[in-house]
């Protein structure tokens, strides 16, 4: 216990036991672990829903896992989990409940916030979204001139963009192919320009997605989109009602922007932005894939929610994945975590996870308001695997950093592929299996020499191995499987935040930049006063103004 009476995570006996265990283990050799236990491959797997999880290629023994679970028990990860599912205000710095799990609860579930069951409201919005999505998909909802909607443009940023954009890509083969769906997020005008330049305003629906409806990038882009629409449709303000809908928690701001609140799809302050794409924020996705597929996705989320809520520690997959991250981040000094999907459709998955994980667990102050003395969230990164193999895998294989990685793959290609393209799937998956094999077991100097490699090249061609990976394998990438995957990562992030004793549900770290941008903007105009700026920014602004001819 500290002088201030607090027990710190790194002073608990469980933490100390893990540190000692790490010392004792020394350099773990995966070759040795597999030699000692020939069934390790099959024995270190778990199943959740459709996801087969292989964690055999981790630098852990059964003892490591037991000690990690003891740490989780000591800090009461499951207690916090239960408080979250009960709707308690576990987001303490914003005094909010954290109930994204209610977004995918079945109709008859009862989940209370401040004594009120929120599930009927969740389903009322889902029903309203479904009705609207069907009207757009069928052509019943028309634009101002009576033309059918053929283009849907989601304007939002962060959680109001990354989730639906990622899921739209992931489920592209399930989308209505006669609809063009695009996502605009960047306040760089080029983003909106490129998104709408070949679209007909008469056939375009804008979905303005913003939890707060105050986010400057989104409001600026939405304002420009409205001008583009009105310019294209002869300036009749009445057109806005047919071409703009809003997704928000803030009805006042939506009305203030000029969108009829009848065309607003609501969600609630207990849904964090990065946990929101299965709320109204998913409307663009629902229009693209249809309400039934969207429901399947929600059921996938719910399945993993139930697993996380009820599975014992030994078989609880989010707990396991979260604790493995703690093991590497806190006891191996790993700084980053790679997510490597072997599916072209998951090309935006890592970008989505960056916000989910890094905005949640990028904190240096604990729940008690004091500086933490241990590492918190890792840098999360990745791109589809085969492309990465020809880019940055070199560093994972032979660099000096330990980079734990998740490999995500599917047994079957999507149905839509021609026979010829589908036949490429085995090659894709051969790479998937080969990479984790190479990362784990490497290639010894003896093996290199046996190939006749000259001695001066032996060290260069040796692979040390012992690079830890989790393999996540499912039959195919369906809406349900996508929901399962996302929920798995949501809860993994939760577990880590709980262990590190940080509030994973606030994001104060994004505020300062927003405030300063507002202050800097006026200084960019011709003749503006720059006296209030710091020396560095003042000089940069002067150069900018010169280059802009101001
Ligand atoms: O980046 C900060 C943030 O608040 C994210 O958490 C959020 O997802 C994003 O901005 C967008 O916010 P909003 O949905 O309110 O426009």
Automatic annotation (TrEMBL):
Pfam families noted in UniProt: PGI
Catalytic activity: alpha-D-glucose 6-phosphate = beta-D-fructose 6-phosphate
GO molecular function list: glucose-6-phosphate isomerase activity
Active site per the UniProt annotation: 359, 390, 514
Entries under SUPFAM superfamilies matching the protein: SIS domain
Keyword field contains Metal-binding: no
Cellular compartments annotated: Cytoplasm
Pathway connected to this protein: Carbohydrate degradation; glycolysis; D-glyceraldehyde 3-phosphate and glycerone phosphate from D-glucose: step 2/4; Carbohydrate biosynthesis; gluconeogenesis
Main location: cytoplasm
EC number(s) recorded for this UniProt protein: 5.3.1.9
Enzyme class: isomerase
Keywords recorded for this protein, A-Z: Cytoplasm, Gluconeogenesis, Glycolysis, Isomerase
NCBIfam families per UniProt: PRK00179.1
Family per similarity comment: Belongs to the GPI family.
Its job: Catalyzes the reversible isomerization of glucose-6-phosphate to fructose-6-phosphate.
Name of this protein: Glucose-6-phosphate isomerase
Native source species: Streptomyces achromogenes
Lineage: Bacteria, Bacillati, Actinomycetota, Actinomycetes, Kitasatosporales
